[in-house]
Specification:
Blueprint (H helix, E strand, L loop, with lengths): L8 H11 L3 E9 L2 E8 L1 H21 L4
């Protein structure tokens, strides 16, 4: 679920405030609270985020060597 605070909400808030960003996504792998993600963003950013993440994932997969 992406509504409400995530495991790393405080860190996402810190990054957003310190960078004065309209939005940030923090993804953590094997952190001290396990894996997770948090989003701090305006509604405008949240609305484009799914498409942006799909595009990023497609680009990452295209860059991977064949199995």
């Amino acid at each position: 679920m992406t509504i409400g605070p995530g495991k790393y909400d405080a860190e996402a808030t810190m990054v957003q405030k310190s960078t004065n960003a309209a939005g940030v996504v923090v993804i953590v792998f094997a952190g001290d609270r396990g894996g997770g993600f948090s989003v701090q963003a305006t509604l405008d950013v949240v609305m484009v985020l799914p498409k942006l993440l799909r595009t990023i994932a497609d680009e990452m997969e295209a860059d991977l060597p064949p199995e």
